[in-house]
Amino acid sequence: MLPPLVFVSVVLTTLLVSSLVVPCQCLATPSVIVDIQERRIPLPGGTTGEVYASVAINTATETEITPLPALAFIHGSFHSSWCWTEHYVSYFAALGHPCFIFSLRGTGGTPVVSGVTKVGVDEHVADIDAFLRYVHDSDEIGYSSTNDEKNDGESSTHGERSCRSNVVVIAHSMGGIVLQKYLEACQRNPDMIVPRGVVLMCSVPPSGNVRMMGRIIRQSIPLSWKIVSGFAFKRLLTDERLCRDLFFGGNEVDGNDDDKGITDEDIQRYQSYFQRDTDATIDLFDLAWKLPSDNADDKGRAPFIDDPVLGRTSALVLGAANDCIVDIEGVKETARYFSVDPVFVESPHDIMLGEKWRNGADAISKWLEGNRELDEI
Fold first, then answer.
1. What pTM value is reported for the model?
2. pLDDT tens digits, one per residue of 119-148
3. What torsion, rounded to 10 degrees, do the Cα atoms 217, 223, 225, 231 define?
4. CATH architecture for residues 17-209+284-375
5. Domain limits, CATH 3.40.50.1820, in the chain
């Protein structure tokens, strides 16, 4: 559910997307209102998934702001759609980007069958495929998407490419490695939606967590224990200090107390969301046998880099200078995978929250501005 920080008027009439609309209006600027609606979309296996969609309305003209490329947000472990609604949705929607936020399977918004505690990475990929198909066909986008004829007749090395969409996918942490797997699947399945661009924020690298944890253990036994106890034993759900340290950069600056824009009340609120959104987590043993790095070339580049369609997907790899979960080498590995240079901003791991949330948002906005080809159909 959308957290209580954002006012939501809920009208539930059915589980189907065609008849579930939950309006919410957030004041982004004095002349712009961001309209957020909750929807449910059908997912593989007969379940439904939680999606939030938003557009910005100019209150002076009472018209929607002319849309830029749509942004589709994918969260990481312990999180769900709420982490994007705190700041990012209002920020990007006010700029003219229709925003779509998906809660992965296993969270409170997209629950699993009773008794299920793990979700395979292929299940997440299939769900993201359903999500991006919904975004691709959504009325909020306001423009048609491309196909082979509009892409100069290009086709994938694995068959005719049917659909390239004017959507940029933004993924955080564990959501980043799921996005990597999604793009791999696109190369094998030419009917899947190919995004115009991808942004990976503090992403788990293509080689997964094990190699990265090995580096952290060598650097700091106490930090590695914090990470293991926080995630594997779920102490993040109850230990406020640990939650603050791992996700939000602690509470000390130069020896002085500093909540860094995250109050104790925020921590308690977030922990209640973490509790709700960890009914089922990604199956790391399953992922270990399907790591993106297994299919990378000898330079660590993704197998789809030279694909005539997928290779045109622009990428921004964004790291946080104060991240204690994903290290600098992990960010650089992800950048090599996409054959780009990494960009670092001053921020803790939860780059979209806290007082420094604009550092990441501004970096993404600058990248979008510098990639005007994303606007071209």
1. 0.86
2. 999 999 999 999 999 999 887 665 444 443
3. -110
4. 3-Layer(aba) Sandwich (3.40)
5. 17-209+284-375
